[in-house]
Amino acid sequence: MTAPVPGIEHRYSALRLFREGLRGQRGWTPAWRSPEPRRRYDAVIIGGGGHGLSAAWHLAKDHGITDVLVIEKAWLGGGNTGRNTTIIRSNYFHRESQVIYDASLKIYEGLSRELNYNIMFSQRGNIELAHAPSEMEGMRRVVNAMQVAGIESSLLTRDDVLAMVPLLDPSPYCRWPVFGGMIQRRAGVARHDAVAWGYARAADGMGVDIVQNCAVNGFRIEGGRVRAVETSHGVIEASVFGMAVAGASPELARLAGFRLPLLCMTLQAMVSEPLKPCLHHVVASTPNSAYVSQSDKGELVIGGGLEPVPSYARRGDLAKTREVLASVVEMFPAFSTLRLMRQWGGTVDTSPDNSPILGPSPLTNLYLNCGWGTGGFKAIPIGGKMLAHLMATGRHHDLSAPFGLERFATGRLIDEAHAGVAHD
Fold first, then answer.
1. Does one domain contain both 283 and 318?
2. CA dihedral of 229, 350, 282, 117, whole degrees rounded to 10
3. What is the pLDDT of residues 261-319, one digit of tens each?
């Protein structure tokens, strides 16, 4: 009997992968179909990112509505879903934010099994650093509010933090001394494209049509209702429409004849060269707007705050890059010799109170999912579920009710940015 040749299976797989790349993957079954859109559907969702794909899946799964079209102007997950630092957490101060983000975290915890697709969710814990006694006091308020709401979170002493993150500068005289922190152990990171692909495959499997490279150029409106969308693939009619397009929300609203109270800003991130495992948690510093985690490939994934001016440019500003990296290196001196491999930006839509807009638009049958700012990725499961509920029933879910557009008229705002919680 001939002995197996070591590594032959690996070489065969690599050769097949190379051949399939050259042939356009003709030997593999696509994860989802790419049909030509029909002229009419029961429901149309504009936006093929995480929220739009999640909404399509929940329309089919929760409400039995499968005659659904998702249209995406570029490729699936190519917007903010694929341009973020993949952090998932629910450590917020206001009850409305706590319950909606924790509902999303709970869905993430079982999402790989639910979709039968590995989203690589790693619950490594999210540590928020305190650099002064006053910041520790603010964290006590947040942790207390979370524990009262029944959401896991706890405070960390200085010694706790340094034991969990030994690469932090322990000196009390450095620019960002460690006074303590707080941790949510259920928090973590997931693979961003896997989240989009998993939802796309699951929705397609339930009969949802997904069309890429299909831009919306206008709306046909009669009697305060949207009758159809004008797209690069023709006019498509539907009974109900959903909009989940993040930074493109103000422009689409303008095409539909109304305005949204959103400001579009660039949020940038960057990735270092890979190194051996050295950072076992997500570590964030709210005062200097810097946060860092280590990917499964060993790269450091680094993020910072919003750019200082509104922009639709999906690239970062060198001054902001320098500011973020300076903070990271000052906290982690050992990272100072690393080289950056790549850098990118995403266009996020921020509302006046830094919380999302979920609910009816000024048009009767058009529903909104926007304004997530820098918190959109962590909210994909619940954002899609809420949009699906709105489209299917015409009514708010209890979780989405506080986030309707009308709150800007009533003054019932939910401002997390000024509650001492980072919006990474």
1. yes
2. -10
3. 999 999 999 999 999 999 999 999 988 889 999 999 999 999 998 888 888 888 878 88
Q: Give the C-alpha distances (Å, rounded to integers) separating 196 from 31, 51, 336, 344.
A: 12, 9, 34, 19
Check residue 25 and report its DSSP letter.
S
Which domain does 256 fall in, by range? 40-84+193-261+353-410
Phi, psi angle pair for 151, to nearest 5°: -105, 130
Q: E strand or H helix at 1, and its extent?
A: none
Closest CA to 419 of 91, 12, 45: 91
Domain count, the chain: 2
45 contacts 14 by C-beta, under 8 angstroms: no
- The reply to whether 198 and 344 lie within a common domain is no
Domain shared by 58 and 159, yes or no: no
Q: For residue 231, what is the enclosing H or E element?
A: strand 225-231
Q: Of the candidates 138, 51, 142, which has an alpha carbon nearest to the alpha carbon of residue 95? A: 142
Query: Do residues 200 and 307 share a domain?
Result: no
* Torsion over CA: 260, 51, 65, 358 (sign): negative
Segment holding 329, helix H or strand E: helix 318-331
> Please, which pLDDT band fits residue 9 given cuts at 50, 70 and 90?
very low
DSSP-derived letter for residue 24 is T
By the 8 A CB rule, do 220 and 235 touch? yes
Helix (H, G, I), strand (E, B) or coil at 209: strand
User: Would you call 301 helix, strand, or coil by DSSP?
Assistant: strand
State the amino acid at position 50 in one-letter form. Answer: G
What is the model's pTM? 0.93
Picking from 320, 287, 247, 313, the residue whose alpha carbon sits closest to that of residue 302 is 320
- For the chain, the 3-state helix, strand and coil shares in percent, each to the nearest 5, are 35, 25, 40
Bridging pattern class, strands 234-243 and 225-231: antiparallel
**114-132 CB burial, b ≥16 within 10 A, e <16:** bbebebbbbbbbbbbbbbe
